[in-house]
Specification:
43% of the residues are buried. The protein has two domains: 154 residues, Aspartate Aminotransferase, domain 1 (Alpha-Beta Complex); 256 residues, 3-Layer(aba) Sandwich (Aspartate Aminotransferase, domain 2). It is globular, with a radius of gyration of 22 Å. By secondary structure, the protein is of the alpha/beta class. It binds pyridoxal-5'-phosphate. The site of pyridoxal-5'-phosphate (PLP) has 15 residues, from helix 5.
């Protein structure tokens, strides 16, 4: 039996209707922006393998970081013990985060980073003895697939079967009309029972790379401050220069209370989640001797895995290099030019770009079940390009090592599709 046949026999894949799914392509190896299948076909990975890969596949510097760490310790319980990679990573992250951020809490992925943030915010008010129990989010948001993360995500086909099990969250409209969203938020916050507001800063990724302005982000954060609502910035997707700056938050100067990080955190090599918070939040969990009840009782078996932390530190070291800074600017410029070239085509409804993110929304049926989606996916796969459209939205979030030639090849294929 071939690997592909065995895969069909043994494996249930995510987000996949298994009945009529195409056979999964068996990937044998990767190098830079390329993936190679078992037959030797090459694919340009312009989605960075679900938005995680920053420096390309099988990067020698990242491989070395993992190998070196494995020679020392591969994993150790993170209660009662600590290690250099976790400490180094925390120290490094805190230099990039706003100065109000004070403590780093580790978990496994984006969804758990969000669960931790929500639990931190809710327990903060509990520990304070204040009745603030409501959560507020933005319409169309995506914060992950676990229950808390799902509850704070926009209601969709993803959440429908679980509707009655999700906790109550108030949603403000996606800010296509900024003053209306601000008014809605202010009305909700003014009730004085809101524990936290969670949002994706500047870009709602899964919603189809929908974007809003730094000025609005700033105003939303000011509102949180005014009404004493904990602000949770879910930078799981936008972190690590995806938007052109280190964090999307960097486009303005109000400081969120909690950050959620994952995806690009390890350069796309190992799963790892991080939630950071202010000293004020951290301090609300401190209590003396017998009164342990204020403790944050949350953890995961693989919390702060040393291999993951070590490769995350190495990835941050690469990000500091001038050539990578230049690459990010180069990709941003090229996206902008291409966006200008296609936005007036008849088949294009709208284009959006910010930093290394480019989205082209096509005229036609929107949503995850859009028929256009499969046609688009196959069109690009047959040209050796991995693009995974979100309904009628084609988007690119390439690894920063992608060459101009490869980007041009991808743009050309998109142009060809749009002109049909
Ligand atoms: C992907 C994503 C998550 C969930 O992360 P996982 O690692 O897939 O659990 C949460 N928030 C945002 C903004 C994301 O893009």
């Amino acid at each position: 039996m071939t690997t592909s046949q065995k895969d069909k026999d043994f494996i249930w894949h995510p987000y996949t209707q298994m009945r009529d799914a195409f056979p999964n392509i068996v990937i044998e190896r990767g190098e830079g922006a390329y993936l190679f299948d078992e037959k030797g076909n090459r694919y340009i990975d312009v989605v960075s393998s679900w938005w995680v890969n920053l420096h390309g596949h099988a990067h020698p510097y990242l491989r070395e970081a993992i190998n070196k760490q494995f020679e020392k310790i591969e994993h150790v319980i993170f209660a009662g013990f600590t290690h250099v990679p976790a400490v180094n990573l925390s120290e490094k992250l805190l230099t990039h985060l706003p100065e109000n951020q004070s403590k780093v809490f580790y978990s496994d992925d984006g969804s758990t980073a969000v669960e931790v943030a929500l639990k931190m915010a809710l327990q903060y008010w509990h520990n304070k003895g204040e009745a603030k129990t409501k959560l507020v989010a933005l319409e169309g948001a995506y914060h992950g697939d676990t229950f808390g993360a799902m509850s704070t995500s926009g209601r969709s086909a993803f959440t429908l079967p679980f509707q009655s099990f999700l906790f109550d969250v108030e949603f403000a409209d996606f800010p296509s009309n900024e003053s209306r969203t601000l008014e809605q938020l202010e009305n909700l916050f003014a009730k004085n029972d809101v524990a936290a507001f969670i949002f994706e800063p500047l870009v709602q990724g899964t919603a189809g790379m929908k974007m809003y302005s730094p000025e609005l982000l700033k105003q939303m954060l000011s509102l949180c401050k005014k009404y004493n609502v904990i602000s949770i910035s879910d930078e799981v997707f936008t972190g690590f220069y995806r938007t052109g700056k280190f964090f999307a938050y960097d486009y303005q100067n109000e400081q969120p209370d909690i950050f959620c990080l994952s995806k690009g955190l390890t350069g796309g090599v190992m799963p790892l989640g991080v939630t950071t918070c202010t000293e004020k939040i951290y301090a609300a969990f401190l209590s003396d001797g017998s009164e342990k009840i204020k403790t944050f009782f949350h953890g995961h078996s693989y919390t702060a895995n040393p291999l993951a932390c070590a490769v995350a530190v190495a990835s941050l070291e690469l990000l500091e290099k001038e050539e990578i800074q230049d690459a990010i600017k180069r990709i941003s410029e090229k996206h902008k030019l291409f966006s200008g070239k296609v936005k007036h085509l008849k088949t294009v409804k709208e284009t959006r770009h910010l930093g290394t993110i480019l989205a082209i929304e096509l005229v036609g049926e929107a949503g995850y079940f859009s028929k256009m989606r499969n046609e688009l996916y196959q069109f690009f796969i047959s040209r050796g390009i991995l693009i995974r459209p979100l309904g009628n939205v084609i988007y690119l979030v390439p690894p920063y090592c992608i060459s101009d030639e490869d980007l041009d090849y991808v743009y050309h294929a998109i142009f060809e599709f749009l002109e049909r």
